[in-house]
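FIELD: query
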Amino acid sequence: MIYDLVIQNGRLMDPDRNLDTWGNVAVSDGKIKRITRESIQGRTTIDARGNVVCPGFIDIHAHVDGNLYPAQCMVRQGVTTTVGGNCGLSPLAIGAFLDSVEVNELPLNSATFIGHSFSMREAAGATDRYQPATREQIEAMKGMLHKALEEGAVGLSLGLEYSPGASQEEVLELARVCALYGKPVAIHTRYDSWRGVEGFAEAVRICEETGVPVQVSHVAYMVGMGQMTAALSILDDAHNRHLDLTADSGVYSAFATFVGSAVFDDWPGKYGCRHEDMVVATGPHSGQRFTGEMFDRLRRQTPDIAVIAFVGKESEIGEALVRPYMMVSTDGAVGNPSPGTGHPQDAGTYPRLLGNYVRETGLLSLLDALRKITIMPADRLGLKHKGRLAVGCDADIVVFDPKSVRDLAEYPVSGKPDAPPEGISHVVVNGKPVVMDGHPLEGRAPGRGIRVTSEVWEG
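FIELD: result
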C-alpha cells in the first residue's frame, strides 16, 4: 500500500503511552494509519533520522482567534492546534467562528472558549468594567454560554483582572453552567503581582463551590514577580486535595497585554517599575520604550495596542513548569501582531521550552515537556483525537531535532519578535505538511475548526 505521507526512521515519542522508540509513521486521509518498523511507502516521504517525531503541540492559551499572520508564526514553532477566546475575549458566534477557520484558510486547527469579561459582558450591556452585572445581564450571559457550548466551545474564559467589577454572583452562576456540562473555566485571575495569591485563592474557591473544572491561566505572567512560591502553594494544596484544577504557564518573564486595560490602573505601585520598563509591542510605535506622555496618550487614543511589561523574574518560571498539573502555553498573538511586531512568545515559546528548559538546564525531561504541550491539554479540553501519536488519531505531527531546537525570537526593543526558530523541520496538520525542511509552505491551509460535544456531565 502507498500512503499519502510516510515519516521514516524517527524517534517516536508519544507521552500518552510514555513511548520513546524508533519507527515509521504512515498517514492517509488526515489520520495516522500505521506505526511500524517495517518498510512502507508514501507519495511524500520525510526522513526523520536523528529527529523526534511527536504529536503536534496544542496551545491551550493563545489569542490567534482566526488571524492569519499569528497562526503562521504559531505553526512554525510546532503548534498544530491553537485554543483561543481566552482572558474573557472571544467571538460571540462560536459556530460561525469555527466555520470560518477553513474559509479563512488557516494553517492550523482552532478551538475556542467563549469569553466573559469583554465579550459576553459587553453583549449583555454590562459595559462598565468596574460595575457588577445586573440580574438580567447575568441571565442573558447564561443564555449566551449555553448556546456557545452547544455550538462547540471548549468552555468559558474569565478575564477577571480586565473586569474588576465582576461579582462573585455572576462568576459562580456562569461557572455552574459549565459545570453542568463538565466543561472547564479558564481563569485569568482577578489580581496579579502582590495580590496574585488572593486571585489564585479565588480560582480555587470557584472550583470548590461549583465543581467546575478550572484552568488557571498563564501563571508566570500573573505571579512571576516574586509571588510564585506562595501562589503555587495554593494550587499545590488544591492538587493534593484532588480538586479538578490545572494550570498553564508561559516561559518568558515579561508579559503582554492591552495598554488600555484595567491591568495598568495602578501599575507603578504593584509592579515597582517605570515607564521605560515597558515597550510597545504592536502598532506603528512597536519597539519603542514608553515615556509617561506616550503611555497616557496611547492608553487614551489606542487602548487595544499591546504593551510588554518587563516586571517578572526569570528564576521563577521553572518553579511553575515542574508542577505535575502545569501545562505550557504561549499567551501568544495579543493585539494581533503584524510582521516584525509582537512578543517573542508568539514565535518562540515551545522551542524555548525544548531548548532551554529541557536540553540546556535539564529542568524537565523531554517526554515530560512534550506531555505538557500535547496530551495534557488534549485531555483537559476533551480533544480525543489530538495530542496522541497513535493509529486512528488525527495526523497532527511535529518533527524536530532535540539537539538544536531553540528560539530566536527577541523582544521588539532589541530584535525580531517573530523570528522563526531553529530545529523544527516539519509540521503536519491533518495529514498535510505545512512546514517542510524548516520552511512554511505557501498556501497550505488544512486547519479546521474544532468543536467539542456538550452533554450533561455524568460522573
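FIELD: remark
The mean pLDDT is 97.
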